[in-house]
Amino acid sequence: MNSENAKKESPFLKRLEAVAADTEALLGRLLAAKPEKDELSRPGRLIDAMRYSSLGGGKRFRPFLVIESARLLKVPRQRALMAGAALECVHCYSLVHDDLPAMDNDALRRGQPTVHKKFDEATAILAGDGLLTFAFDILSRPRTHPDAAVRIELVHALARAAGVGGMAGGQMLDLAAEGRFTQSGPQRLGESKVAVLQAMKTGALLRFACQAGGILAGAGAAQRKALDRYGAAVGQAFQIADDLLDLEGDTALVGKQTGKDAAAGKATMVGALGEAGAKMRLTQLVAEAESALAPFGRAAAILIEGARFVAERHA
Amino acid sequence: MNSENAKKESPFLKRLEAVAADTEALLGRLLAAKPEKDELSRPGRLIDAMRYSSLGGGKRFRPFLVIESARLLKVPRQRALMAGAALECVHCYSLVHDDLPAMDNDALRRGQPTVHKKFDEATAILAGDGLLTFAFDILSRPRTHPDAAVRIELVHALARAAGVGGMAGGQMLDLAAEGRFTQSGPQRLGESKVAVLQAMKTGALLRFACQAGGILAGAGAAQRKALDRYGAAVGQAFQIADDLLDLEGDTALVGKQTGKDAAAGKATMVGALGEAGAKMRLTQLVAEAESALAPFGRAAAILIEGARFVAERHA
User: Fold this and answer.
1) B3-52 per-position pLDDT tens digit
2) What is the pLDDT of residues A163-196, one digit of tens each?
3) How many CB atoms lie within 10 A of CB B12?
4) Do A168 and B126 touch (CB under 8 A)?
5) What ipTM goes with this model?
6) What residues of chain A lie within 8 A of the CB of B137, using their CB?
7) What is the CATH number of domain A3-312?
8) What residue ranges do the domains of chain A occupy?
9) A177 burial via Cβ count (<10 Å: 0-12, 13-18, 19+)
10) What's the whole-model pTM score?
11) What residues of A are in contact with residue B122 (Cβ under 8 Å)?
């Protein structure tokens, strides 16, 4: 085995790939063309667009965080996969709507035509709406957890993470920072404002992913707090790495157009701290993620490797 | 008191107005500008657009159905108002997205500029997303019901009513019937296909409204079935009345452009049955609604009047 293969066989990458395969299979079953017994119909074009935007791609890093934080607390894998699938539906809906002409106007996503390019704008709007709604459908099912109190806690946390005080709100702050709604052009946000924007726009869902493990396990306050600290650090690291990729990355590798943030005047931590400052922050965040999980000892090794992966990824 | 005033003082209209006032006040409080204690921020422009699209208008007929079906089963009003507010968020999100240029491209709604006209398209997309998400936030709160099992049942039923097998799916069928995705122009759908389309597009949310009363009350199968039969009849009546209004109504009264369905080649029951046939069906549906609630006796008088109101409304 050469060194490239050895790297591919890292325990972390094996776990990430296993989560991706299981998530793909589960979403494929959940988003079947055939209606559930209490549904009149699942219109073909809509379910096709929902499948197109949620199957066949993505690292499934959010489901990975759900499943591995749940595994740390001995939650059965099937339950964590359901919560991960719900979260992935929210993530995919946000990509479909963000790509729309009135939003970021992107033609490529994961190297493929975006949903409104492949289908049409109306179908893309409805596919996003359908995926967002479907996330709550998934969370409400007993397969996610037999205890209704656990399921409703997941619903509450996901609604908060995705809503006006979370991802949707962060997206609005991002458009405002671009200068969409004023004559004065892009705003140059300071570090603390960029931090709030990013904690909402990307951080909230990643943080939810880590909280979900604690919710599914009915964990105590200390364990929940540890996972939340880890999730917050990973969320920040994820976004900074994304901004660096946009600056330095290769369109072919990244699978979407790069260099767009700077062109659009997007508010990024690279803009606020400079490139070197952003890279230094990344290193600190990985250390913070590691320290947060110290109480779990060796069992948290995979999640810690996940934090490093996020910081060092090239695509 | 003259006869016009007497009509205004009907018990039904008084109840409808009371629900509208209470729903307005509750949504106003829930959609406060100030973030909840676990939210980082509620971006002003987004919350403004969410408030614009959900406050200050509408008959609040869906919340009325929730509250009156709940009252029939002795559910505390505050709980029913929460469920009604959640449902109204879903209804309002659907209007915002349906009005978008890529969808029905409407400039007027309730006599006011639509959200994308008043704000802009990106804000309208996010406001719709925010309202849809917020509905599940509301349902997940203990104020909606102290029992988590009841709350999760509401989440499940609303997700089904709004999703790919419900409202979003119905909207997709409607666009397809317009001939959006083919070269061959509008499809002329037969009665049964129009019935499925409308049961999903408008019927599902109205039906959920009536189911919600039974869920909140933890009612037995017979009562739930009665409310569901009533809800299905009212849902069909509502859509047929809407189609007749589009045909005959006055833009100033209806508060949105009329005559658009025929122009767009929309699939309607008026198209399938003819105008006289559609009016006859309306009468049958009111009788069906009445018969469904017969077991409740006099206590159901307001809901029965509600079904008549739906069938006879002029705006």
Assistant:
1) 455 555 689 999 999 999 999 999 999 999 999 988 999 999 999 999 99
2) 999 999 999 999 999 999 988 888 888 889 999 9
3) 17
4) yes
5) 0.94
6) 156, 159-160, 163
7) 1.10.600.10
8) 3-312
9) buried
10) 0.94
11) 102-103, 175, 180
